[in-house]
Amino acid sequence: MSLPFVEIPDREYILPGTRTCAGCGLTLAYRYILKALGPKTIVTLPACCLTILHGIYPKTPVAVNAVNTAFASTAASAAGLVAGLKATGQDGYVVVGMAGDGGTYDMGIQALSGAAERQTDFIYICYDNEAYMNTGVQRSSATPEGALTTTTPIEPKKQPKKDFIAIMEAHRPSYLATCCSAYPRDIYEKLLKAKDMGGTRFIHLYVPCPPGWGFPTNKTVELGRMAVETAVVVLFEIENGKFRLTGRSLTMARSGRKKPVEEYLRLQDRFRKMTPEQIESFQRDVNERWEQYLKKAELL
Question: Which long-range contacts link 167-170 to residues 24+ away (Cβ below 8 Å)?
Fold first, then answer.
């Protein structure tokens, strides 16, 4: 449910001078994540685009505590921080594990699954730019079918994107939500809610990537909005087992209108080799998933 009168604070936790690419959707989203979580936040992160944003030791533009960890160990590091704070009697901190799709869908799944099954008290944020962007745009299990990457350069990826959100839903986290960097208020409201809950909270954050996807740097917000308006990305939350569509996705469900996926695909160079048949198949998959979400939201 949207909270239109929630006021976003003016205080900034990302200062000028980050090392991310021009038009980076992660920087936009991270700004509002930290506004929601506040100064008593401890972020643990692996080698990823977020590491680039945080900068090279001993200098950083980010005004919260951060711990760098190994690629597969984000959730394990977060669990260790939770235990350490408890052992030393330090209250009021929010522990956040944050990694990309490669560090979550692929290498980090074991540690995250274990922590979620134990309901360890932290927030885990997967920022999904659908490839290993920081190391050169290699395909991950989050890369959608039909996308070109540096490891699928001639023939696009044949396998569909892993449904990691469904995997995490099966763990029954205390809170699960999807976000997109193009909708910062939705991000802020969901992180504000997650902050005050206990147990494992999982946030899936969709982050358009100009160099990895092949679109102009001034189109990041437009690309993110198009992903949602075509239902390639669906905004929702699950709280105490109750599923709710949120934001633009809820508006689309009520109006019955969504845009064709071709409008989203044609904006990106990575999909330039998709055939009409592949686009049609992509549209069918999106339609089927959208109908499933409408049923879960009891809007059909």
Answer: 167/109, 167/113, 168/112, 168/116, 168/202, 168/204, 169/238
Residue pair 163/149 in contact (Cβ under 8 Å)? The answer is no
- Residue 209, φ and ψ in degrees, nearest 5: -130, 105
Provide φ and ψ at 299, rounded to 5°. -110, 5
**pLDDT at residue 2, as a whole number:** 47
For 239-279, the pLDDT digits (tens) are 988 999 999 999 999 999 999 999 999 999 999 999 999 99
Q: Give residue 6's pLDDT.
A: 79
Where on the phi/psi map is residue 259: left (φ > 0), alpha (ψ -120 to 50), or beta? beta
Q: What CATH number labels 25-296? A: 3.40.50.970
Q: Domain residues of the chain, as ranges?
A: 25-296
Q: Cis before residue 156, ω within 30 degrees of 0?
A: no
Which pLDDT tens digit goes with each residue over 1-44?
Answer: 445 567 899 999 999 889 999 999 999 999 999 999 999 999 99
Quick one: how far is CA 134 from the chain centroid?
16
Q: 67-71: long-range contacts (C-beta < 8 A, 24 or more apart)?
A: 67/42, 67/43, 68/44, 69/44, 69/45, 70/46, 71/46, 71/47, 71/102, 71/103, 71/107, 71/108
CA–CA gap between residue 61 and residue 75 (Å, rounded)? 24
**Helix residue ranges, H only, the chain:** 25-37, 49-54, 74-87, 101, 109-117, 164-169, 184-195, 210-213, 220-229, 247-255, 261-265, 276-296
Q: What's residue 1's pLDDT?
A: 46
Positions in the chain short of pLDDT 70: 1-5, 300
